[in-house]
Amino acid sequence: MHGTVFSFSPDLDNKKSKKIYKEAIERIKKRHRENIGESEAELESISKGLDGDPDELFVYEISGALDCISDYAEKGYKIIFASSSKIETIRKILSFLIEKKGANLDINSFCVHSILGDKREPESWEEILRQHSNISDVYDDDPEYLKATLNASKSFGNNPKLHTSVRD
User: How many domains in the chain?
Assistant: First the structure.
């Protein structure tokens, strides 16, 4: 989702966004004396940032992302979000963006998955693909993740279109 739906950088620069993320996670981990995992630190920082703490992670919609999601939803497609983040974090981000934009989307209609493992490995995608066999399009800003998704999809007889941006 990061890089295709949202950014942590107000100017939507992906490199800046990744740097902002890394710094926030390090700050949270220090605060907890390293007794917190990355996904828990991410959830804590995003929660605080969305509640108005200017020193924590805030999310900005990638231009056109919610419009793209809305287009798919209006056409009756099932929307599936897969991320290395916790499901609670994914839902928090999506709810915030939808509410902020006033988009006519129901967060409860989305399928949300947390991917365990390396997203560059096809095996990491297999559980999602077992549950959702007819995936038409996949969006990710990382070509390696898209390649892994395509390889896993083909093993299930599927050949989705791949996109690195909602503008593709």
Answer: 2
Q: What is the CATH number of the domain that holds 79?
A: 3.40.50
Average of pLDDT values for 58-78?
Answer: 94
CA contacts within 13 A on the Cβ side of 99? 9
Does 132 reside within a domain?
Answer: yes
What residues contact 89, with CB distance under 8 A and at least 6 apart?
Answer: 39, 42, 43, 46, 83
pTM greater than 0.70 (yes/no): yes
Q: Where in the sequence is the domain holding 155, given as residue range(s)?
A: 64-163
pLDDT tens string 29-67: 999 998 899 999 999 999 999 999 999 999 999 999 999
3-state secondary structure (DSSP) of residue 133: coil
Q: Does 1 map to a domain?
A: no
The structure tokens 């990710």 sit at 140
Longest dimension (CA), the chain: 48
Residue 83 falls inside a structural domain: yes
